[in-house]
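Bump. Still looking for peptidylprolyl isomerase structure tokens.
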Amino acid sequence: MASSSGGRMTTALAVAATLVIAGVGGYFLGTRTAQPGTGAEVVATVNGEKITQAELYEQLVDGYGSQVLENMILARLVNQEAAKAGVQVTDAEFEAELAKVKASFGGDLAYEQTIRQYFGMSDAQFRDYLRMQMTATRVLEKQLAPDDATLKQHFDQQQASEETRQIMARHILVATEEEAREIKAQLDGGADFATLARAKSTDPGSAENGGDLGMFGKGAMVEAFEQAAFALGDGQISEPVQSSYGWHIIQVTIPDFERDKEKIREQYVNEKVNERFTPWLTELRQNAHVTNKLG
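Sorry for the wait, here they are.
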């Protein structure tokens, strides 16, 4: 609803958007633009005239080399900080996160179109970025490590204002009002919300999680969805709500600190990581001893 029908931008993509705006390190050019090889291999011919890999590589270094090298420096700095902190991202964790990103866009094709159109990256470049981002996030999460008192203060301040308060919601998204009303009738008859969401919802970003959209505040969702969700009480299920994405059935849960402490912790850490990510990378680069013969 904000950036996709699932209503949330993943942490990875939220940080990516921040980095695109900030231009930190030109990171999105990726580190796989060129491979030097032997140099003698012919990569193209023009009316019989050869273009060798060495010529191509020289052009790429002249045009993009300093940017790509800067990317590699930044990635090394992040990995060094991860080693100091004793954190890592396993291949299984990386592939699981990539699968979530792809699902949030609606599949492989939509994913590739989106990262090219909005972030200017190929799949290989995005994979490089995502692994770096996940590694950096692990470091920042360890640095944050909020205690319960910090979380409670944050939660109380957040919930004190109507403009800043957060709710938790799940939804079922379908194409027609008729189908939405049928689902609402099933829910009124005692059907399980999560089961119906997995079976019926067309939102790829939340269906597999039983329609769960996590915690969010005002401004995160499209207006029609937001108005309906914030008007509901704890546990209430909406009538069908139409948005530009289709028809929604929404169920809201009002957060309780003790019951939902881990979700509150996750939301707090994600928020702080997003705030800290770009300044932290900039500080790493500024404070590092780096020799760069292309820069």
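Residues 111 and 215 are 24 Å apart (CA to CA).

Edit: fixed formatting.
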